[in-house]
């Protein structure tokens, strides 16, 4: 009987997150991204059409280390991507941009 309970526990631990858990995690990540003033500035600067790193840094006045940290955070949350040497917002990033005041 103990083996069955252990197997069920292991199955539960290995199961993929539920849709509700995924939605909650996405909401938490959006809140973290949108609540940080520097991240909001970066998203506004990149805008709908995207920009190069240099253009964004000049626009936002941010050093390399902060730029790297903040853009990696935005990329890990699927708000930002790099295409053709330009930083571009994903659909999720564009949604965030639309909701920034």
Summarize the structure in words:
With 101 residues, the chain is mainly alpha-helical. It has a domain at 37-101: Winged helix-like DNA-binding domain superfamily/Winged helix DNA-binding domain (Arc Repressor Mutant, subunit A), CATH 1.10.10.10. Helix content is 68%, strand content 8%. The protein contains six helices and two strands; from the N terminus they run αααααββα. It has helices at 2-14, 19-35, 37-46, 53-60, 64-76, 91-98, and strands at 80-83, 86-89. It has a two-stranded antiparallel sheet with strand order 1-2. β1 (80-83) and β2 (86-89) form a beta hairpin. The radius of gyration is 18 Å and the shape is elongated. The relative contact order is 0.14. The model has no long low-confidence stretch (mean pLDDT 89).
Share of residues in helices: 55-70%
Strand order of the biggest β-sheet: 1-2
* Terminal Cα span: 58 Å
What average pLDDT do the residues reach? 89
CATH architecture of the domain at 37-101: Orthogonal Bundle
| Class inferred from helices and paired strands | mainly alpha
User: Count the strands?
Assistant: 2
- How is the biggest beta sheet arranged? 2 strands, antiparallel
CATH class of the domain at 37-101: Mainly Alpha
Low-confidence stretches: none
